[in-house]
Each structure stands twice: as C-alpha cells, then as structure tokens.
Amino acid sequence: MRTRTVSGGDGVEIYVEERGPADGRPLLLIHGFSQCRLAWTPQFESELADDFRLVAMDLRGHGASGTPRDAYADSRLWADDVRAVIDGLALDDPVLVGWSYGGLVVSDYLATHGDGALGGVVLVGAITEKGTSDADRFAGEEFVALGPGLESTDAERSVAALDSFVRLCVEHDLDDAARYRALGYNAAVPPHVRAALQGRTVDHEATLPDVETPVLLIHGEEDAVVGPAAARKHVELFRNATLETYPEVGHSPFFEAPERFEADLRTFVAGL
C-alpha cells in the first residue's frame, strides 16, 4: 500500500492510497457521499490489484483529506481535486470510476477539464446532477427522508441517520463487521460537509454529451439511494455509453457483487 497527499483545488489536501503495479493501467476510484476510500477495500483486496494500478482518493471533506468550511459549491474545486491526483501521481490514461456522488465529481471534472487525459469512465449507481428536478426524481424516498438527520449536529440523531443510510446502501443485510466499519467512516465526515454536498445546485446535462471517451454505466436494479432511472438517462446522455444492470443488487454493486463488478471492469478496460 502506498499513500500520499496532493494539493487539490484552492490548496485543499487530498489523501490518496494506491495498490498494484506502478506500470498497470490506472483506475482512479472515487467514492460517494459521506464515505471514504475504504469503500473500495473489496477491490484493493481482489485480483484487480495484481494487474491494475488502483488509486483511491478521499474526497474533500471526507476521510483523511482536508475539511474546509466553505469549499464545496464550485464544480471547479472538485474537478481540480481530481486533476491534482491525476497529475500528482502521473496517471497515464486513467479510467475514472465514480460511485454515487463520485459520479457528480467525475462530471465536474469532465465539464471543467474535458476527457482528453482519460482512457475511460465508469459510473456506478451514480448521479451527474444535483438540485435539479431530475436529481430529485432519481433520489430514493427513504434516502431523501434521512436528509435532516444526516445534516444534524446532534450526535445521537446523526449516528441514527447514518446507520440507516449505511443499511440503505445495500439490498441485503450487512454483517456487523461491515456495518460498523462503514458507519465509522461515514460518521467521521462533519455534518457541515454533508449539508454542503446536499445543498449544491449543478447540472452537467449540456456538457456530458460532448464526452467522447467510452463510458460504462453499472447500476443495481434495487438501488434505493439513486434510482435506476438515472442510469437509463445517462445511457442516452453520453454518446458512447453502455449500461449493465445488476439484479438483486442495491446501491453498492462493487461490494454486493464484487466478482461480476470486477469482471465487467476488466472487460471494459480491455476494450479501450
């Protein structure tokens, strides 16, 4: 395991871990709302790490990255964080893999810096917009109902909402080890960060059709956080996209169905 930090947008420190051969095809893994790089542990511990250079970043406000007070609304900041990782680690033709809110961060990057430096894009249970009518339409009702608790500064209320959120991220029950591990790194994110992320208004619908790099869309058919309708919109929005749906899988295909996820990822990268 190799770790480092890079200076992202406006100088915010972005923490990065990587595993795998330094000359392998880089896969830059970008986690979702209130999570951290540890969400990708199944992939770091899989055979993917034998063949690919796996790079997982903590988004600003998450994990071991910097948690500024007011630095979350501007798409350029998120885009610059991603570019700082690509440039700082000298990632050659990386494939961006964005889960959930990570899809919005990938979209921020694409809208700001384009796709010229990328080999491909993978969006997993992802969103590409926030604060729009479609964004509201795609958000699961149970997830939306958790909003006040997720933004609360009352510890008891916040942890209860986060526990519900962690459970909502999968279709089937988590064992205690997985549940409490995820709850821990979710709880480490300050409430002001979750509020700022949820309060963004951003729409990339006008720019994403210009993306020429291949795009793989992966979505669980039972996703209760981001409805599968989002993926059906994305497959029409991107000019070069394919969609894989996972039956009996919720919001976390890479965790719930890691063997299929990793096989689909390998097939996609092989075709680039």
TrEMBL record:
Keywords: Hydrolase. Residues 26-258 form the AB hydrolase-1 domain. Coiled coil: none annotated. Pfam families: Abhydrolase_1 (PF00561). SUPFAM superfamilies: alpha/beta-Hydrolases. One of its GO terms (molecular function) is hydrolase activity. InterPro entries: AB_hydrolase_1, AB_hydrolase_fold, AB_hydrolase_sf, Epox_hydrolase-like. This is Alpha/beta fold hydrolase. It comes from Haloplanus litoreus.
